[in-house]
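Let's study a protein:

___
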Amino acid sequence: MSSMRTVNIRNNKEHPNSLLLENTLNLEEAFDEGPVMIFGGPYSNLEATQAVLNEAKRCRIPPHRIICTGDVVAYCADPQATVDLVRHAGIHVVQGNCERSLGMDSEDCGCGFETGSACSRLSVQWYDYARRSLDEGARAWMRELPTCIRFQMGGVVCCAVHATPASESEFVFASTPSQVKRRRMAVLGDARAVACGHSGIPFSQEVQGRLWHNAGVIGMPANDGTPRVWYSIWEAAEHGLRIRHLPLEYDYTSAAGKMGERGLPDGYREALTSGLWPSLDVLPPLEKQAAGNRIDQDALDLTITFPRLGD
């Protein structure tokens, strides 16, 4: 049985009200009667995307309670088919840097990689393949996606964004200083919890009275030396939220095989089976040191309790 961390939070009045993020989708339904599934980065990995949607069906989580934090298309072999599957599923999707770049037919992915880095060089090949693979219907859908999704759960206002509340391409990890996270969350107004993607490694943290959560991604392993990919389940708790990080098994052999057949970068193809990223360029020192160490699911889970407003 999972040993779940519990955090109790006192009201923090430091954060002033701020303007809402551009192009925010406000969900009217309060998600109090059942779980919400959150995942990031399908990355053109059709097999993993089908697997996570199958898991949602098995858990009886309907499409309107599923949120993808963006980057539906990236490294893997099935850009168009993955977009079609996600659109047909009817789930909520945040616009990531890949959706913005591909939707506008930009020259690069806008991922935030440093110029000349290994990640930047590898992105040229997979991004060009993705640009050639998508039809105009997919691009138009990407252009119309919201940059932020707001919802309520357990009396808590929550937001889902792509990378951070202030950027679609900034990399934030568990070891990123709390003051950085606090500054990024200052734009959220009354929201007390944020679900982010982009960075690819799952974690949940309490940051000065708010929740910072990254569900991980389903299109690529979490650099822990296993082919597992990650998603999360949120549930309402008394005056707060219960967060479960969950690994997902899927047919990574087929996904990797198609990448080889279509001439996509060997580094990312091999990562699907080895669980190790081809480059650690974006990682801070602590995450670099943890490369290849199997993620402990029990250590990720978190129950976070917020006070009632006015307490």
Summary: The two ends are 34 Å apart (CA to CA).
